[in-house]
Amino acid sequence: MKYPLALLLSVALLATPFSPSAQTRSAKPAAAPAACLMEGRFVFLGQQLDISDCIQNDGAPHDQLLTACNGISEMATGMGIPAPTTTWRASCPAKPQGRCLHMNGTKLTAYYYKRPVQDLPDVKSSCELMGGRYAEG
Fold this sequence. Notes:
The protein is an alpha+beta fold. The protein is 28% helix and 28% strand. The protein has three helices and six strands; from the N terminus they run H-E-E-H-E-E-E-H-E. The protein has helices spanning 5-15, 62-78, 120-129, and strands at residues 35-44, 47-57, 85-89, 98-101, 108-112, 133-136. A hairpin with a 6-residue loop joins strand 4 and strand 5 (108-112). The radius of gyration is 14 Å and the shape is globular.
């Protein structure tokens, strides 16, 4: 069965076991950031993908945000794709295409920015599959 790329990546990102990685611009941010923006361009399963996703802390322990954000880089390299560039921020950028509220039963919210429009229903499905609540914009 062929699954859309967005669904495969979203499930992988949301299901990834979060563990630290050194693939970020600042592995130990000076202040306690509330969000991490992950950006990159890569080819996966023969498709080129520009990714711009962010995870924002909505009240989770700070270590949970750090391990979630750093775990994405480890997951990417484990899948054979380059780790995204991670930028620690005070909050996720405005105007996302969609959000996965309280993904994986946590108080972390994923924000999506550069997903192909036709893949957004699959992003929503993967969010809900992982126990989150999807919201547009």
